[in-house]
Amino acid sequence: VETGFQRADAVEPTIYIESMQTHDNSRQQALVFLAITGLVVATVLAGLGAMIYSRLRVDDGPPPRDAAQADAEIARPEKLEKPPPPEEGFVGSRKCAACHADIAERYQSHPMAHSLSQVLDAAPIEDYENTEFSPPGARTYRVEQRDGKVFHHESMLDADQQPIYDQALEVKFAMGSGRRGRSYLIFEDGLFFQSPIGWYSKDEKWDLSPGYRPESHARFSRRITEGCFYCHAGRTVLETGMGEHYAKAPFLEASIGCERCHGPGQQHVAYRELSVPPSTPDPIVNPARLSHAAAESVCYQCHLQGEHTVPRYGRQHRDFRPGQLIEDNWIIFVQGLRVDDAGQTKAVSQVEQMRASRCYLESRGSMGCTSCHDPHWSPPRDQRVAFYRDRCNQ
Ligand code: HEC
Ligand code: HEC
Ligand code: HEC
Ligand code: HEC
Ligand code: HEC
Question: How far is the CA of 148 from the centre of ligand 3 (A)?
Answer without folding.
Answer: 27
